[in-house]
């Protein structure tokens, strides 16, 4: 990643040394900010399983997804109009809509329906954590990205840590098969969507572009919400915080961070962060829902963290 300004230092040092970062111009400053963006992305994405679980207590899954996307898209649309943001042409508009439907509608509505059918949150997180492998495999032929041997080792190590961490709470039976199929569909959605985004939506205007994607996702989930669920929702004091968190933090902040990092780094580097999502989700569930973290979960956390650090080395 290029710094905005390069500071040359000699053996005796200068008045503006390598640690000086008045405007974020040194590689060190950029690296620190990049690390922060990655950490926030993991936290925000992990919180989506919590907000979704809480929201499904008061709303049918497609209905919850539709409201989430519509609120988030409406907020960004208003901001884009006030800021007079540039709007894409018709061809780019179509590409943005496709990416939005895949990343937002297909992924999250499928996760919600899968969990509503009884798939445990840990298993849902595990399946979505396969995203680094599937996205990297798609990126090789589509984007011609190169994945190093060390990155592949890190990806596999991270996957093993994820499997170990969630294995304590896996309870499968025949009734979960439909839910598992939907989780696989969610995995396909985010994998294909992020590769499509990087291939066809490079340099999109972030506010208007995300508004288009979220509103397209809302339209895509509205029909099943109306026909299959009758737009089933009970607006209570407990429902609003979960819905607004999912809309503003998960949809706007989370996806915005994902696309920002995808524009700066390769798909395999960014996607490897998702190995940490099940671990952070488990930690949030323990903190907020008082769920116990067992020894396998803690061991898997260490293993997945090591794999992520290996696969996700920052390149300046």
Explain the overall architecture.
The chain is mainly alpha-helical and 316 residues long. It has a domain at 43-153 and 171-267. It is 71% helix and 0% strand. It has twelve helices and no strands. α1 packs across α11, α3 (90-116) runs antiparallel to α7 (177-200) and α6 runs antiparallel to α12. 47% of the residues are buried. Residues 1-25 have low confidence and may be disordered.
Oligomer: single chain
Task: Tell me the radius of gyration.
Answer: 20 Å
What summary fits the major beta sheet?
none
**Average of the residue pLDDT scores:** 81
Q: What string gives the helices and strands in order? A: HHHHHHHHHHHH
Shape: globular
Sheet-strand content, in percent, reads under 5%
How many helices does DSSP assign? 12
Determine the structural class based on helices, strands and strand pairing.
mainly alpha
Regions with little confidence, pLDDT below 50 for 5+ residues: 1-25
Q: Helicity range of the residues?
A: over 70%
The count of DSSP E runs of length 2 or more, i.e. the number of strands, is: 0
Termini Cα gap: 4 Å
